[in-house]
Amino acid sequence: MPEKHTIIEPFRIRSVEPIRQTTREQREHALRVAHYNPFQLRASDVLIDLLTDSGTGALSVHQWAAMMQSDESYAGARSFFAFEEAVRDITGFRHVLPTHQGRAAERILFTATCTRDNVVPNNTHFDTTRANIEDRGAMAVDLPCSEGRHPRASYPFKGNIDLAALDEILGGSVRVPLVMLTITNNSGGGQPVSMANIRATSEMCRRHGIPFFLDACRFAENAWFIKLREPGYEDKTPLEIAREMFSYADGCTMSAKKDGMANIGGFLAMNDEELARRCRNNLILTEGFVTYGGLAGYDLEAVAVGLREALDADYLRYRIRSIEYLAEKLDRIGVPIVKPPGGHALYIDAKEMLPHIPPLEYPAWSLGCALYVEGGIRAVEIGSVMFGLHPDGSEQPARQELLRLAFPRRVYTQSHVDYVAEVLADVSRRAGMIRGLRIVDQPSALRHFTAHLAPAHGTLYAD
Ligand SMILES: Cc1ncc(COP(=O)(O)O)c(C=O)c1O
């Protein structure tokens, strides 16, 4: 059994893509040109890109083979039926609407269900989910369980929703068009949700007559954590666990750029026929015909194969282990991380690492800039730049200041991970010298993608 030896990458590399070394001076210059916003860097100036695990993975030979044989017909393409069959087989949902990515599925769902002043609860909304709900004039409410609020508290299912708080909202006077659970809970630290919590949420929603949807981006990683950590699931396959998770929900949104193992794609799936009809009309209006939804036939093929590959036990074992491996290294050198480590990413607690930087000088964002300058590694802030600006224009510190290192699927090897740990050790040694940032220019929503920042005190590092 593989557990006896080192858990290795369960693939060999057939096609390589060079990555470029840069000097510290070049990186300092690139960061200035990018207005201290890592989203604005050119990818060719980045050595190890941990900005996101979304759409950045490597395709398998089976995916390429299926893509070569795609059907590009406008309507009724064979590739759509392969896609639909894979989604139905895993989720069990009757209606499958392809979309170009997850946020398109969200927009279509919330357009069909949400009106002004509605409330949509979730364990923690992802930023595009929140923005799509707020765009409808509704309120996105985060209800993480109490363990999920403490970055360093070890608990197997920190992604769980707070059921008592949910019950209170569902029993109140506000209209709740649907309840969501994000598996795994990305913004809450990539933490899994237990089967017991999914089941209880489902039962509560049924009692109140409210539809229950999963944000299923990382359903396979969530299934693996259930297998590892929840009694009664150790002998079940990831597919069996995934099917049970979906069986409790009325539908899901999905970004196939994550556990669809594809570079682009997503879907909206559901059981309710009338809701599906309304969503299909919007799909045609904004994404494309119902059998392609803004995707090429070869994208549909890549997702159809990718969804099954994401549930492969050897792959999931390697995937979760590589994040855990980095977590162990960082723990040893005293870098404060969210515990236990997440499925697709590791989250550094910048509040603890840089306590001298006030929240509204964006400690996690500053840490991200320092990591790039030190070693050409790009990560993403999940903190006050991402979540601090409210629809009324006011600014408040976010609950947590995290720097997320998200790992593309099947892309980096163990020596890349070792390099990341070495650079972080250097950053950690100089943590006291890192200074805060200020926002110079920003849009009214989703500001982290395009905001311009500058050092709040002259330079990123104190001399
Ligand atoms: C939990 C979660 N939901 C939704 C999305 C949106 O998906 P997409 O980027 O495909 O629009 C993401 C993307 O990162 C996500 O992590």
Q: Residue-averaged pLDDT, rounded?
A: 95
The oligomeric status of these chains comes to single chain
Q: Helical stretch count?
A: 16
- As a percent range, the share of helical residues equals 25-40%
Strand arrangement, major sheet = 2-8-7-6-5
The share of residues in extended strands comes to 5-15%
Distance between the termini: 52 Å
- Supply Rg: 21 Å
Distinct ligand kinds = pyridoxal-5'-phosphate
Structural class: alpha/beta
* SSE string: HEHHEHEHEHEHEHHEEHHHEHHEEHEHEE
Q: Can you tell me the residue ranges where pLDDT is under 50 for at least 5 consecutive residues? A: none
- Describe the global form: globular
Please count the beta strands (DSSP E, at least 2 residues each): 14
For the sheet with most strands, the description reads:
5 strands, mixed
In a nutshell, what does this entry contain?
The chain has 463 residues and is of the alpha/beta class. Helix content is 39%, strand content 12%.
